[in-house]
Amino acid sequence: MIEVSHVSKDFIKYEKEKGLKGLVKGFFNAKKKIYKAVDDISFSIKEGEMVGYIGANGAGKSTTIKMLTGILTPTHGEIKVNGIVPTLDRKANAKTIGVVFGQRTQLWWDLPLQESFSVLKEIYQVSDEDYEERMAFFNEVLGLNEFIKSPVRTLSLGQRMRADIAASLIHNPKVLYLDEPTIGLDVSAKLAMRQAIKKMNETFKTTLILTTHDMDDIEDLCSRIMILDHGKIIYDGDLSKIKEKYGTMKTLSFSCGEAFEQVNELKEAFSFDPDFSVEVNELNLIIKFNKHTTSVSQVTTFVMKHVDVVDMSMSDTDIETIVASIYEAKVVNV
Amino acid sequence: MSLRPYFAFFKAYFLVYLAYRVQVILWFFTNALEIAFAMLLWTAIYASSSVDVLYGFTLSDMLLYQLLMTLSYSLTDMNPIDTLYDDFNDGKIAMSLIKPVNYEIQTFFQNLGANAFRNMVLLLPMIGIILVSGLLNSSNVSLSLASLGLFVLSIVMGLLINYFVKFVFSNLVFYTEASFGLWQLQAIVISLLAGGIVPLHFFPDVIANVLRLLPFAYIQYVPVMALMGRISGSELTSALLIQSIWVGVLALLAHLVWKHSIKHMKVNGG
Ligand SMILES: Nc1ncnc2c1ncn2[C@@H]1O[C@H](COP(=O)(O)OP(=O)(O)O)[C@@H](O)[C@H]1O
Ligand SMILES: [Mg+2]
What we know:
Chain A is an alpha/beta fold and 334 residues long. Chain A is globular and about 70 Å long. Chain A has helices spanning 19-29, 61-68, 90-95, 113-123, 128-142, 157-169, 187-204, 215-221, 239-246, 263-269, 296-306, 319-329; strands at 2-15, 31-45, 50-55, 76-81, 97-101, 175-179, 207-211, 224-229, 232-238, 249-256, 277-281, 284-290, 309-316. Chain B has helices at residues 4-18, 21-48, 59-76, 80-89, 93-97, 103-133, 135-138, 145-176, 181-193, 205-213, 221-227, 233-263. Adenosine-5'-diphosphate sits between chains A (11, 13, 35, 37, 55, 57-63) and B (266-268).
């Protein structure tokens, strides 16, 4: 479905002086600086796959999506989506894709939402029948009718995003690119959005590439993730594998009634677990350990024997922490 | 290629203006004020002059010229500059490029929609003023179906020339990433070169001859002079021919410039 081989995108940054003089000077000898936003990435995605594309701000996620959608031309390498090279045949590619850039809207600012959808219907040449059916579905899941008559500029961020998601799906695209589609959404809107995407994927085998900072979105939708760092893909594979490898750590946090002073004894007692670590922060005690070697009851028993515990909580490592540790390690072998 | 999606853009931008009713009323009065001001100014100039005819124009010719120039300005008014500036500068263009539409045609139809709305509001009152003023009679302009037909043809080509000239300019500014202030300057220069302030034949011959070769004269000046019967016969034929050549050349230039822009575009934001 999507084939990306050895793709890079360089941005040339000019160092310019301000004003007319700078303009003239810059015209003849501007100082060039090449910046690699995407650096030799390759991957392929099959029909119906849902892939999470994650990475820190500025990692190159949006740039990748812009190349896949045909907005930006890669500096090197080749992209094929459905057999089409997006930048060479932008219109043909555009017919089969849906795109949401969370930062901006594809709807017409001054038009009532209803009119934006009418324009989209004409652009994608959606039949009356399909249009009615899909609008009814979007209304059911995303609640569009509440604000369908309002001009887009008057919508709240959450309403606008729901409308944008509907807009990206109105022509039943084969591939859906969502670039931070959940920024600013409340929990119920997020759930609604995920539901709409899942339904499309189940019914039409819609392929999805999703970038987000919300790990719940990823865990809920994607079975595969790609992690991007400084323009390079540092991990591409199953979400479950990476969770297994990096997600074996458990964290126990205790609030104690008095200071915990037996740190050394504690460490001694659990020296068989190489991943074991203790952190004392005033009256708080945070213990991390590998759940395969150490059991929760062993740790709690030990702690309770030595101090008075006021409160206690336990957590598994979430994917966010996993990604953070992968960033630190840079190279991943799973 | 089906034009249907593009009519959707036409309609959408027509509707956008419906949403800005107050602005439309304001802009109606600005136009009225501008006309009144030009009328008063030229009346005063003629009154203080020792002759009745300036460069072949009597006062009523001049007043009619000013009215027709305002009318033709409104008919040919297109602002791809605004569209392109928004699209390039904050990266909105990405949102157009993800859709299966031709951006050049889309921009044209958007602007045409806005133009149609403006003319729906302004056209009737302006034609009314021209008819009621009696200036057509006093300047001996005889309207026929043929002369109106030629005027419409010439105005349509004028609209295309105006559109493409501005489209090319907008792209040049985009390359140089120059400031928006240049636009104010550009609008005044075009207006002057197009005969919007003074009729072109008021300029010294050397300048007037050069201006007659540039595309600007073919936006409003040629259609208006043709309607007033000041250009006729073989002169009119060659004027229309040059006009159509400019349409072709500028359309091609606009397309090439656009191809270049899109290749070198860096989409901001997101
Ligand atoms: N139009 C541009 N011109 C120059 N640099 C850009 C441009 N667009 C993005 N970049 C740079 O490329 C890098 C990657 O950006 P982006 O793909 O938007 O990151 P992400 O979406 O992962 O946050 C950033 O360092 C950004 O500054
Ligand atoms: Mg981004």
